[in-house]
Amino acid sequence: MQEGIEETKGNDAAPKEQLAPGGIGVAVAIDWGLAVQIFLTPIITVLNPASQPKIAALNSTLTVVLYFIIAWLLAGLCLFFGEMLRSGHNWARWIQIAVTALLTLGGLASLPGLYQSLITGHFWPLVTEVILVIFAPLVLWRLSRPATGRWFKTVSAAEARQRHGGKWVWFIALFAIVGGILQTLAVMNK
């Protein structure tokens, strides 16, 4: 029996298994889903001219081009941030914790508005609230766990990408695309 304990202590894989992180998948799906939403928004505004932003002193074509450039740069930033979190960068974890805390508070503050929307038969705001009141607090809680913090402090980027690679990436990307499309529709149907 004592021998089995010694073997476990001497095995390099055992400590890393104990340091399994939590919340990374949902956090990356939220970040990438936001990228999908930001990417789709200018496309939808072109298809629906009534929702186009108006910027003083710019003609309509220039406004649309500028809108696409800014939106797609922001979408790229969200993709980059999700990738940094997936790659095990501890600074990205702390930013994600702060942002999801703010998102959770925003979701809680908008619950009365959700109630009003639901009683009038408008269900699209439910998509946003599920993200803000269920998934954001889950990310906040899981990323703030001590085991997750230790994992981020000890893992290399290559090890993190290996752990969160392969089918995992495709699964998270699928959730991000579906969530991003639903959130885009929810915002456009306010």
TrEMBL record:
Keywords: Membrane, Transmembrane, Transmembrane helix. The chain crosses the membrane at residues 24-44, 64-82, 94-115, 121-143, 168-188. It comes from the Bacteria. This is Uncharacterized protein. It comes from Ktedonosporobacter rubrisoli.
